[in-house]
Amino acid sequence: MSTDTSNSSYRDSLKSMDTEEHIDLAFYRPIGYMWACLAAKLGVTPNAITIASIIIGIGAGVAFYFPQMWVNVVGMLLLIWANSFDSADGQLARMTKQYSRLGRILDGLSGDIWFATIYVAICLRENVTSVFFMEHPWLIWTIAVVTGLCHAKQAAMADYYRQFHLYFLKGKDGAELEDAAQLKRQMEQDAPKAGFWKRLTMKVYYNYTVQQEATAPAMQRLRRELNERFPSGDIPQSFRDAFREKSLPLMKYTNILSFNWRTIALFVSLFLQMPWLYFVFELTVLNTLLIYMVIRHERICNTFISQLKDGKY
What we know:
With 313 residues, the chain is mostly helical. It is 81% helix and 0% strand.
């Protein structure tokens, strides 16, 4: 394989340069691409890689329970390994065109399972190593639950805004932007022949999408306005370019709310032997970024709704 062909294949494995994070481009994407190429040769599916990442990520979480630093470092390496697999599954899917809604659901769940394990490990650890939390064992668990709910919202909205950006950048086929109403119709249509696990999976995914849409009401109004004016989906390129220009500065916030900066904060808290600090980071810094991003994005959507109604596009 020539260098040009190899570089082209690597670029094709990426979602888009607009939405890629610098740490991913420098580290995880090249490693993920190597895993993806190996998996393609061995006939390993993207979903199999995702499941492997879940198992490795759980192992990382367990390692963070122990106060010994060398065990924590092993956990850090396992978490990095898990995330390289999480990168590889998407890259493999794009390389081999093995897209599936199940794959998207599993990919979203993988990070949630890693961090759920990490949260439990931190709580158990603090309850046996911290005098304060030993005296108030309920407090760390309460903080962890609240943090976990915030984490879920942060990750969901980061993904949602990223997919909305890709929709205007690459079109419907280049994004994984879902519609709750359409998902509900599909669930009702598939219900008679769907098994228990498929129904449960789709129900969870439907509720996930409903929560995303509820947090971005202006986006839903913009989508409805676009569907009414351009029912065929042929949105003018001028509108796509204008929206991309306004949305692009927000992509850095979606990246901060994703994996890399979370793990940097987590690793720092572990090196300081104060893992509870990671919860503080999520509750303060990341929640502030989420609120700012939601407000900015809603304003952008409202601006474009007004422009559509004024006949600019």
